[in-house]
Fold these 3 entries.
Entry 1:
Amino acid sequence: MKIFEKIITSYNKEMPFVVYRKPNKKSVSALFSTIDSLTFTNSFTESGFVFAPFDNTKKAILFSLENSEYINEKTSLDTLISDDKKNNLDEKSKKNHIKLVDKTIKEIKNNDLKKVVVSREELVALSDFNLINVFQKLLSNYKNAFVYIWFHPKIGLWLGATPETLLEVNNSTFKTMSLAGTQLFKNVNNVVWKNKELEEQQLVTDFIENQLRNISTNLTIDKTETVKAGSLLHLKTKVTGKLLENSNLKTLIRALHPTPAVCGLPREKAKKFIVDNENYKRTYYTGFLGEINFNPKSTDKNSSLFVNLRCMSIENKTASIFVGGGITKDSNSKKEWEETVAKSSIMKRVL
């Protein structure tokens, strides 16, 4: 594929690019930037691809359509099943994460926090990292995810396969989702969800409904369903609506990001707890990425944004894999640790 060749060329020349495939699609799209400067957006009125951090007070990086070569190609990759890498469990990491979860549960029980999403960074040494091979494995193994590779010489290299849509917007009509609750897929037809996961999911859905009520009309909340993402199962609720005339894409993004699925409730208190207590900086993990005001062949303004989950950054032959989980008063710290181990395996199996 021409796109794969251009990935190598741009990466070697240290020129910014993003290559991605939307969930359940047969084609891969790419923007190869013609400039190497760092460009940001705060208005979300431009046309291009954004890469935004978890911290919603900071600007999103923009690869503008105007300053990029756009390519779209069909893929013909068969499913590649990689052997699951054994998780070399770091006892120190386990101890630290369990301690953090226990502290979070105590904090929730002692004040008005309802949920906090806490996460950790797992470092994996890479002996023979091949950028194209890893990207191809992501594309082949995670057909129903938003799969991407993103690079900027001033920021770094990121890859991911996220199951969570933040927003899909066509002119003034939008779709979003609440995605919470996690369990391992065990090839069973009757999936049983415990109260903890159901409550966590409902908190996210209620937040989205409350945030959108005053900026939209025709708001519809679908029934909650179970969805598969790699080796994991999640609870998902689809939400649709239409923006009011005095609202826009920025209004929508500010209302939703960061959602309780990656932050917590109340949002600002949960965010402060995360920043104060996680022992690393999330940067772009649990941020969002995707197309804004984007349709090269039409005057329609389409935006497709995804939450940056199941992702990793690569630097100096080391992969930083980011994983977390939603904590409520009913959480069990050892089970929360096991959930992060299951989530980290999604990235590990392609390395």
Note: The chain has one domain: 2-348.
Entry 2:
Amino acid sequence: MQNLKVIIVGAGIGGLTAAIALKQAGYQVEVYDRVQELRPVGAGISLWSNGVKILNRLGLGEQIATIGGQMDRMQYRSHTGELLNDIDLNPLVAQVGQRPYPVARRDLQNILLEGFGEPVNLGCECIGVEQTETSATARFANGHDATGDLVIAADGIRSVVREYVVGRAVEPQYGGYINWNGLVTADADLAPKNTWIVYVGEHKRASLMPVAGDRFYFFFDVPLPKGTPANPETYQAELRQHFQGWAKPVQLLIDRINPAEVARPEIHDVGPIERYVRDRVALLGDSAHATCPDLGQGGCQAMEDALVLANSLISTNISVKDALLRYEQERKQRANPVVQKARKRAEKIHGKEPNLTQQWYAQLAQEHPLEVTNAISEVILAGPLR
């Protein structure tokens, strides 16, 4: 189909990737976001090879390589520092044909904005969508309406469009833990600069992952009740309490974080849901299938959505609605199982059933590194680009 006008609600990873793919297909694309200033949510993201391949396909491979961390190895250590498993990631790269790239979210967002090359309409809070047989319209709180041939709702885990598409309210589910994350200067006394290190124990995690600019992306996971109060002034004291007795690099990391620049989300997921599409309106990314970050696939799945949606529109001349149904069919089969797998892993890591978490710790110490990379490659190779 040619000469389509596409309205995208949401300028996050999924929305911008879709905007690039659809613009490259020759469509007129308008992107809207509710914020007054684009700021990435969270400090970093692990782009596994399936996500990187999407960006390569869109002509952004060189740019992504410049912001990606050199991650050659992955280590699991006990909370007191004993090595459980040391995993060479080169066999993974050989299996899937692309390096993974941990990146700072701001760096990634800047590359996507540059790749789109058009202004994003900010201060536009979507309050609903409408459609006719020939068009779809996004309505905004500021009184503006945007009408096109289709509307893509890439408006995140709290999507206002999802209920319209699915036909019922779908509330995000609490994943059972809180995540502190940010960026620190890379230093050998924290971790080797080419290694992703994960400390595990007491149903918690502390992690360091290399990104470009001589930095580590870090995160801490702690299972806590939903609604536990957050105060940046006490983040370091809280983390020292939660991770008391953990290995020295974990203590050094806590000392070096800048609490004012630390994100602290309560982890939620969405779905699996039964519909991604209603006629000329399609959900994309977290609005359709927000995942717990325990597989590192949230951003990658949104990027896969963008490519499949663009390919579905390009490759048919039947109708927009037919193309979107084909997108829905393919992506439900792919993304819904990822949501379930990520939640199951989150529960195992964070002690929902303590005996299963203890078994996982024991498994980490016994697993052959190739078993780990094979499991990662299985997820990656199930995507649209193999």
Note: The chain has a mean pLDDT of 96.
Entry 3:
Amino acid sequence: MNPIQIIDVIKHKNAYGYQWFVVVDRMPKRVYTRTGNMLVSNDSGFYDFLAIEGGTKAFGGRKFSIQLDDGSTFECHGQVWSCGAPKGTEPTVQLGIGTIERLRDCYVFSGASVSKARLQEWLDANEPSTDYRKYDRRETEEYWLEVLEACPSLKKQVSAQRARALKRRGVLIFKDGSARFWSPYFERKKAHKAKRTAEAAQ
């Protein structure tokens, strides 16, 4: 399997500081090495850390199997907990990861730990993005136009003179025969995206 390639890095500012989100060409394959009660997976510098600590409430008691690097599987039923990196692991950074395909289907980044050196290597050669929603299909004009197609009531008919005035302000005008329409919904979406992009760049 080819090493994971970092496509983009998003530096997202929120009320508590900055968060990092990494867009990759494929999600990490989680195959774990067991050392005592520790389970560690590492795919191209993308890590996951688990600890066998007993009990029945880890991950809400959900039952699942994980693959070990010796070819066997380990059955989890509430006794395996997410944990921090064990001693001896290279420095890592906690962040969110996702592929473009997964994000377009559902805009949720998965949690992961990545090698600090791997992340820094990409940042040394590239500029991170600042728009957290840049891969969200719901934040594209293509999607908004689909909404308008499904909900024509979101458009308002205007006179030809009013349409010309709106167009000079940068408003998108829709035509249906001789009728002219504009959409407050579409314009609010555009304005919100422009504001968010400007704020993220500050």
Note: The radius of gyration is 24 Å.
